[in-house]
Design a protein that fits this description.
Elements: H1 5-22, E1 25-33, E2 36-43, H2 51-66, E3 72-75
Parallel strand pairs: 2-3
Antiparallel strand pairs: 1-2
Helix pairs in contact: 1-2
């Protein structure tokens, strides 16, 4: 079955979610448009000084590795 990029991103975020939840955080997928993934950090991740690093070095790198079409991840 051919999955959409959004479905593939959602599945990859489900794989990543336990790592964020272990630190009291979570991530919500808001949208995917032209290879740009928009997410919202929740729980302990929201407002955390390390949130930018979590997005760029954690979520973005993981998604790019799993889904080559991904250009970047933005936290809204």
């Amino acid at each position: 079955m051919n999955q959409t990029i959004r479905e593939r991103v959602a599945k990859a975020l489900e794989e990543l979610r336990p790592r964020l939840q272990a630190d009291g955080g979570d991530v919500e997928l808001l949208g995917v448009d032209n290879g740009i993934v928009q997410v919202r950090l929740k729980g302990a991740c929201a407002g955390c000084p390390m949130a930018t690093i979590t997005i760029k070095m954690g979520v973005e790198q993981y998604l790019k590795k799993k889904i080559p079409e991904i250009v970047r991840v933005e936290a809204l």
